[in-house]
Amino acid sequence: MNTQRPVNLKITSLPITAVVSITHRITGLFLFFGTGYLIYLLQLVLSSEESFASAKQIMSGNIARIGLWLTLVALAYHVIAGVKHLLLDLHVGDTIRAARLGSWVTLIVTLVLAVFAGVWVW
Amino acid sequence: MVTSITSFGRSGLSDFLLQRASAVVLGLYALCVVSWLLLNPQASYEELGWYFGSLPMRLFSTLALFSLLAHAWIGMWTVGTDYIRKLMFGKYATILRLTYQMVVSLILASYIIWGLAIVWGVL
Questions:
Q1: Inter-chain touch A32–B72, beta carbons under 8 Å
Q2: Fold of the CATH domain A16-121
Q3: How far is Cα B123 from Cα B109, in angstroms, rounded to an integer?
Q4: pLDDT at A11 exceeding the cut of 70
Q5: In 10 A of CB B15, how many CB atoms?
Q6: Please, which residues 89-118 of chain A have a Cβ atom closer than 8 Å to chain B?
Q7: pTM
Q8: Does residue A77 have a pLDDT over 60?
Q9: With contacts defined as CB-CB under 8 Å, which chain B residues touch A79?
Q10: Residue A35: its chain B contacts at CB < 8 A?
């Protein structure tokens, strides 16, 4: 790569829109594994009375609950950021001001849902 | 340069559209399951079996699993081709990226087969 690139192409700090965008990707990556956890739980609760009971047993532990909570938060974020992305595809809210606002809305709604998910899991 | 031999729909435009269509299915499925679970917080083993075993939910779960395959494939492909490049990995980039892609597809295939087995009552 050309090392004599114009210096103004170097990104020195991430604007809020970029932070929300990269987090969308990170939550997606996280969900790639989180989905496996959800399928595992689905198998436990559906396959037999005994495994249903063992799922309840497993879910009484904090580590299992944290895992579920993180997966739910990642899912919530990924879905909300996804809806924002689809709206941007349709040129809804793609001015710089609207995009900043949309990014904040994504973060705040996820935060609220994260609290709800926490109450739900615990 | 990375050629698109491991893309999902064999073209960028097709992947773009599939990514979005599958996203809508997965979003609706998540909403559907989460709202049922919220409305039935103390659901018993029988009630969960009745819900996921009903024909509409079996079809919806199947659709969601195939959407997951497309959606995660395209997403993970995008991540892989963005970061596993010559710039970061030199001459090992291609072999690393293809290995990564194969591991991803293997995991996704397992998810689909596993999920289908659960949904259709084999497991």
A1: yes
A2: 3 helical TM bundles of succinate and fumarate reductases (1.20.1300)
A3: 17
A4: no
A5: 20
A6: 89
A7: 0.92
A8: yes
A9: 27, 30-31
A10: 68, 72, 111
* A56 interfacial to chain B (CB closer than 8 Å): no
Query: Which pLDDT does position A7 carry in this prediction?
Result: 64
Please answer whether residues A17 and A99 qualify as being in contact, where contact means their C-beta atoms are separated by less than 8 angstroms.
yes
Residues with pLDDT less than 70, chain B: 1-5, 122-123
Burial of A83 (0-12, 13-18, 19+ CB in 10 A): middle
Q: Any CB–CB contact under 8 A between A88 and chain B?
A: no
* Amino acid symbol at A115: V
Give the closest of A28, A32, A79 to B30, CB-based.
A79
A80-89, A102-111, B8-17, B112-121: range with lowest mean pLDDT: B8-17
Name the fold adopted by B12-119: 3 helical TM bundles of succinate and fumarate reductases (1.20.1300)
Domain ranges of chain A: 16-121
Q: How is residue B52 written in tokens?
A: 């996921």
> Which chain B residues contact residue A28 at CB under 8 A?
75, 79
**A64 pLDDT above the threshold of 60:** yes
